[in-house]
Amino acid sequence: MTAPPLFRRIALIGFGLIGGSIARAARAQGLAGEIVVTARSAKTRARVTELGIADRVVDTNAEAASDADLVILCIPVGACGAVAQEIASHLRPDAIVSDVGSVKGAVVREMTPYLPTSVHFVPAHPVAGTEHSGPDSGFAELFINRWCILTPPDKTDIAAVDKLRAFWTAIGARVEIMTPQHHDLVLAITSHLPHLIAYTIVGTADELGEVTSSEVMKFSAGGFRDFTRIAASDPTMWRDVFLANKDAVLEMLGTFNEDLSKLTRAMRRGDGEALFEHFTRTRAIRRGIVEIGQDSAAPDFGRLQTGAKKP
Ligand code: NAP
Fold first, then answer.
1. Pick among 2.60.34.30, 3.10.450.40, 3.40.190.80, 3.40.50.720: CATH of 7-179
2. Which element (helix H / strand E) includes 57?
3. Which one of 57, 133, 159, 164 is least enclosed by Cβ atoms within 10 Å?
4. Residue pair 224/205 in contact by the 8 Å Cβ criterion
5. Which atom of ligand 1 lies nearest, measured to the CA of 126?
6. pLDDT (tens digit per residue) in 118-158
């Protein structure tokens, strides 16, 4: 006899990179008796139907949420409060309500007032992604060996937290628990500030007068193109992240600016020793990331050199 699925019915509200990857992974692992999906636009809902990944595609958030034992909001951070309000009266008692937003403090603040006390709110953030978005961009392997951070409020039912942990573990993630505030500080430096820097540098290069855009593109392998991948990330998602995690990002930006000033000074003074010491320290961080399995050690992220044939 096979074990029953972890959840009888999972509702995914939003079907882009993250919602689409969760649906594909949950289906591959047999974690849901039924996967019900909705998305904001009729176009996305029609595409989800065509893809055949969901058991049911419904027109409204309320319809998706009703009678689900796990509801995950896979939508931009700025939309979570309004959707929580919309679904609140349709949630079954004891349902687990979660999200995947890249900022946790604001999501908790905006969703909590609407959610009935009879449901278990366990916010989550899978630290996994690509620069692609939309219903075709997801894939079942996205979360394998990536972290998923849960930020349950203090008095959350432990069984609900454990059940959501089991779900993320089953689709390949490693789970860690922290407060929303700590999450937002950690992600400000590991994700939000790098995106801000990438958005800035790509914009700066685009506006240069003396170096043409075609030259920037032609010689991008010098380092620029790695920033362009990050700067190609979804504008709606990232607008919401910077608005929602403003305080932590500004704090990290202050420290970053101080460090940038130190390097600028070292360069201006011809202080090669200071530059060398700094670059040696940062190189060790890259090695550490590879050692803990969060990236590949292959040169240039494993890209095939132009003209090289696939093995
Ligand atoms: P996505 O590919 O752009 O998909 C977003 C989904 O949300 C779409 O189904 C969209 O519907 C729906 N949506 C957009 N605005 C909405 C609104 N105002 N109300 C209701 N639904 C709305 O985005 P994603 O990359 O999956 O990101 C979703 C969430 O995951 C975000 O909160 C993001 O912070 C978080 N996250 C993203 C990444 C990443 O790397 N991308 C990583 C971790 C976490 P339509 O298609 O109908 O417009």
1. 3.40.50.720
2. strand 56-57
3. 159
4. yes
5. 43
6. 999 999 999 999 999 999 999 999 999 999 999 999 999 99
